[in-house]
Design a protein that fits this description.
It is a single chain. It is globular and about 45 Å long. It has a seven-stranded mixed beta sheet, sandwiched between helices. It is of the alpha/beta class. It has six helices and seven strands, in the order βααβαβαβαββαβ.
Length: about 190
């Protein structure tokens, strides 16, 4: 089955993306950083070993955006919290391994993505932890239905996001891959 890599992106509007970073460096500079970081990430990780898809927000503007590469398919993220949007993405792929990544992690590369897909060979799910208690990737083997409680009761944007997300999988086998740093504040840029 073909692997699918989904990159979650937002239209890089000041005050709409990287707002914690924006409080440190200004909303326009934070949006600029996000736009260029996302574009570099997309170029860096496209690979013939997997299909790359953009999950865009806001839905209408993201699907029509001129910012993102035109050759990549775009799926609207839809409404709800991060868990609702990621669960929707997992339901969108019928079967086969799927990994979702954020677009604000400068050290994601093809090797890290390949590591996550490889971990799905021995596990039902995979997470790539972030140093702040969240994660930079989540993947499911997708050889059966998406777990019904996936991402329920997750305390997003806290140090509990990873542990809560793992707990929402119940008795599924979960693998962990390399821990990476995401960018939320100016301290994360250094």
């Amino acid at each position: 089955m073909r692997k699918t890599l989904v990159i979650m992106v937002k239209e890089p509007r000041p005050g709409q993306v990287k707002t914690r970073l924006g409080r440190d460096i200004g909303m326009t500079r934070a949006a600029w950083w996000f736009r260029h970081q996302s574009a570099a990430l997309i170029r860096r990780i496209e690979d013939p070993r997997w299909d790359t898809v953009l999950a865009v927000a806001p839905d209408y503007e993201g699907v029509r955006s001129r910012i993102w590469p035109v050759h990549l398919p775009r799926w609207p993220q839809g409404r709800g919290d991060l868990g609702d949007r990621m669960r929707r993405i997992f339901h969108h792929v019928f079967l086969g391994p799927i990994c979702i990544i954020g677009s604000d992690i400068p050290s994601i590369n093809r090797a890290r993505v390949a590591e996550a897909f490889a971990a799905l060979g021995h596990n039902d799910a995979v997470f790539g932890p972030a140093f702040d208690g969240g994660y930079w990737t989540v993947g499911l083997k997708r050889n059966s239905a998406v777990p019904p409680c996936l991402f329920e009761n997750v305390r997003w944007s806290t140090e509990h996001a990873l542990s809560d997300s793992v707990a929402s999988l119940g008795n599924k086998r979960v693998g962990l891959v390399t821990t990476l740093r995401d960018v939320d504040t100016v301290d994360d840029l250094g």
